[in-house]
Amino acid sequence: MLFNSAEFLLFFIVVTILFFLLPHKFRWFHLLLASCYFYASFVPIYILILFFTIIIDYFAGLFIERATGKIRKQFLFISIIANVSVLAFFKYYNFFIDNINEIFSFLGTTANLPFLNILLPIGLSFHTFQAMSYTIEVYRGNQKAEKHFGIYALYVMFYPQLVAGPIERPQNILHQFHERQSFSAANLYFGLRLMLWGLFKKVVIADRLSIFVDRVFDNPSAQNSIVLVLGAAFFAIQIYCDFSGYSDMAIGAAKTMGFNLMTNFNRPYFATNIKNFWDRWHISLSTWFRDYVYIPLGGNRVKVSRLYFNIAIVFLLSGFWHGANWTFIIWGALHAIYLFFNMFVSRNIGWGWATKYKFYTCVAWIITFLFVCFAWIFFRAESVNNAFVYIRSLINNIGLGHNIRIPPAGLVLGFGAMSYSIVIISLITMFFVEYKFSPRLEIKLSFKRDLLFCCSVLIMIFLFGVFEKNSFIYFQF
Amino acid sequence: MRYLTSIILILVITATVLFVSYFAVDRGLRQFYSGRYEKFDEMFNRTNYYDVLLLGSSRTHRNIDPRICDSIAGVSFYNGGISGAEGFEMDAALQGYLEVHPSPKYVILNYDLGVLSSEKRLYNPIFYYYFLNNKAVYNAVADTDKFTWLYKHFPFMQYLRFNDDIRIEAIKGIMGKHYTFDSNYKGYSRMEETIGKFDTTYLHRDSLKYEVRNNDYLNNIINTCRQKDINLIFFVGPVYNHHFDKKYADYSSIIKSSNLFAKENNIPFIRFDSIPLNTSSDNFSDNIHLSEVGSKIFSLILVEKLKFYLKDY
Question: Which residue segment(s) compose the domain that B240 sits in?
Answer without folding.
Answer: 2-310
